[in-house]
Design goal:
239 residues, Pnp Oxidase, Chain A, 7-stranded antiparallel beta sheet, 4-stranded antiparallel beta sheet, 11 strands, 23% helix, 31% strand, globular, binds flavin-adenine dinucleotide
Length: 239
């Protein structure tokens, strides 16, 4: 199996190898292969943009696909959940897994129904999760989750106590076998007969933006937003 480069992100190495070698079968984008990307740097950047992924696995012979939050640190993709969760327990056993992430950037509106599409960046990664053991390593992963939701938040909130840590499974999967697929740009019918049609065509960007914070009903009066939240709503946009 050919793997993504294992060292720190090295764009030149990955691109060179990609040009030299056909990507392995399981991760080779076949439909619109020009949209396929295999550089670690690109894959990591897409993983860092999105908040939610879908993890697929087989449980007692049946396919399952479950949405989860995740975080990436270095070459590892982390997920976490309750020790009681069927998903966490199955993945902790090392069941083969497939993890998919999508960021939708625009609707692509063509003159014909056929050419309608979307601009997006997506990643599909294959592998097996392993339990993250040891409180220190688990705290690093939990900090990554918290800071992925809201950068800087970990330093502002109460840390997990022993009971909470015990109730939580943290799993990591190395991002070694993964592809990205990326679509950008206008619809594909500008240079066809359909361009003569009196139908608006183009891209409708999708803006990922946060709204106004809604205080928890039990929030103590006068509690400050905190630096991380204040910073995020000032900047508004998701990363
Ligand atoms: C945006 C988002 C983020 C999440 N983040 C996490 C996370 O980080 N960690 C975590 O443990 N869980 C997370 N969840 C919840 C997660 O999707 C599962 O519900 C949970 O992990 C329990 O998994 P399970 O296999 O034990 O579910 P079970 O309750 O055993 O699943 C049984 C059946 O319930 C249904 N089901 C389960 N979950 C869902 C769902 N989300 N939507 C619709 N039907 C469902 C399915 O039919 C499934 O086959 C998240 C959910 C969402 C939508």
């Amino acid at each position: 199996m050919v793997r993504l480069s294992s060292g720190p992100s090295s764009r030149a190495d990955d691109v060179t190898r990609t040009l030299r070698k056909r990507p392995p079968d399981r991760i080779r984008v076949r439909r619109n292969p020009k949209k396929g990307r295999y550089e670690r740097e690109r894959i990591e950047a897409i993983l860092d943009r999105s908040l939610v992924g879908h993890v697929a696995f087989v449980d007692r012979g049946e396919p399952v696909c479950i949405p989860v939050l995740y975080a990436r640190t270095g070459r590892d993709l982390y997920i976490h959940g309750s020790r009681a969760s069927r998903t966490m327990r199955a993945l902790a056993r090392g069941e083969p897994a497939c993890f998919a992430v999508t960021v939708l950037d625009a609707l692509v509106l063509a003159r014909s129904a056929f050419e309608h599409s979307a601009n997006y960046e997506s990643v599909v990664a294959f592998g097996r999760f392993r339990p993250v053991d040891g409180d220190d390593a688990r705290l690093v992963a939990l900090a990554a989750f918290t800071n992925k939701l809201l950068p800087g938040r970990w330093d502002e909130v109460r840390r997990p106590n022993a009971k909470e840590l015990k109730a939580t499974i943290v799993l990591a999967m190395p991002i070694d076998e993964a592809s990205a697929k990326v679509r950008t740009g206008p619809p594909d019918d500008d240079n066809t007969d359909d361009a003569e049609l009196d139908v608006w065509a183009g891209e409708l960007p999708i803006v990922h933006e946060f709204g106004t914070p809604i205080p928890s009903p039990g929030l103590r009066a006068g509690t400050h937003l905190g630096n991380s939240l204040a910073r995020l709503i000032r900047d508004r946009q998701l990363p």
